[in-house]
Design brief:
Layout: E1 4-8, E2 13-17, H1 19-22, E3 33-34, H2 35-49, H3 52-96, H4 102-131, H5 139-154, H6 160-170, E4 171-177, E5 184-191, E6 196-202, H7 211-221
Antiparallel strand pairs: 1-2, 2-3, 4-5, 5-6
Length: 222
Amino acid sequence: MPDRTRYQGRRQRAYYDCMGHRDSARTQSCRSISAATVDDAVARLLLTTLTTDQVTLVLDAADQVAQRHTRAHRAAELAVERARYEADRAERAFTQVEPENRLVARTLESRWEAKLTALTEAEAALVAAQQARPPLPGRAELEALAADLPRLWDDPATSPKGRKRLLRTLISDITVLADDPTGQVRIGIRWHTGATDLITTSRRGPDRTPPEAVDLVRELGQ
């Protein structure tokens, strides 16, 4: 997956570099790629996917995901409540024991410590459940956006920052997979709903020689 964006040349063309490229480990599986190659392919997928009908299907799936997260969140809340109750009981039992009864006191203290540990683990699980909830936009907002998206996307008044913000709202992450010698690039896309897509496009850019030209040079060079 691209690790950073690099700008090159007088026109400051953007390129995505992976970690290995930045560290000078230029391998077939880790090369820079023109940002326009990736951005245009993802934009085409977005515009063809985000129709009103597709939005309805996606939102139905997203509702199911949200409901599962809600159930998991509630279960984590109940687990914290039970753990806190058990820890409070163990604390009261320890504080009420007679000081001279050291054996019982040590046993109750160990039990209290175990309950506190369980409480800490339950609270951590609750935090994880809260953070796992996907940041999904509202249904009405997305349906209205889908109806007018192509015009808004191509509008000169729409800034690149605005387009990027829209992509981040809908797409969780994008992974550029290792390309083959023919210049094809595979781009994996994971939407916030959990759905995934894989698209294939060709490398391009001012410093990219078309595969046909490379074949011709090899043939004539012999």
